Amino acid sequence: MVMSLYSTAQTVREQSIKEINAAENAFAKMAAEKGVQQAFVFYAAEDAVIKRGNDSLVRGKVGIGNFYATDFFKRALVVWAPNFTDAAESGDMGYTFGNFTWQLKDESGKLIEERKGIFHTVWKKQKDGTWKYVWD
Questions:
Q1: N or C: at which end does the chain have fewer Cβ atoms within 10 angstroms?
Q2: How do strand 93-105 and strand 111-125 relate by DSSP bridges?
């Protein structure tokens, strides 16, 4: 019986890891294809928080949408992929981290690398079964 419960927990966790990876990759694809603002709003949980700058927190979908509505982000492209993903045995929370690169289009439309770094995203499974980030 103990082995069976462990196996079930492992299966739930492993499935959650796959789902979180799929959500993270779809999030990055949407950002590349439809823009940073649309992707960051679509994949945000209602109560999501993003940390930007050294000490700035942006709270909620509306706040995140407003933050990414500036001209800077309309010209920006961000590329990222998870290097590591894990999930709780319960299958309702998980996290990713990896590398990102921000690029900006100059006046001629050429992409110029702006900044590189490491991201860390916390994901939470929603009541409808989708994964949304709660921290980025």
A1: N
A2: antiparallel
